[in-house]
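Q: Given only this backbone (102 positions), what sequence would you predict?
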């Protein structure tokens, strides 16, 4: 799938920093592929809104389960490319007691 701007929303903004939320059915690998690589630059369409240092909390589905990933915008190029990297991801399902698996 492709980036859908209606799924990107601001959660908080302060001092030039924006915390975003994005929901997608795309895989994390697709979202973080570097610009210039085939299929890369997933967030390029949002280049007018995103800035280096912004963070994006992403809800997505990986292998049939809901996943939360935290991305950092590390570059917004002059040519309009947006590069993101994973700064943390929760790919583990909680244990049956509700606590995270050890």
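A: Predicted residues:
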């Amino acid at each position: 799938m492709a980036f859908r701007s209606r799924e990107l929303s601001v959660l908080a903004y302060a001092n030039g920093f924006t915390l975003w939320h994005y929901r997608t059915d795309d895989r994390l690998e697709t979202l973080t592929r570097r610009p210039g690589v085939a299929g890369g630059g997933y967030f390029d369409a949002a280049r007018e809104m995103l800035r280096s240092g912004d963070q994006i909390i992403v809800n997505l589905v990986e292998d049939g389960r809901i996943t939360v990933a935290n991305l950092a915008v590390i570059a917004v190029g002059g040519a309009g490319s947006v590069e993101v990297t994973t700064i943390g991801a929760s790919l583990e399902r909680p244990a049956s007691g509700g606590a995270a698996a050890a």
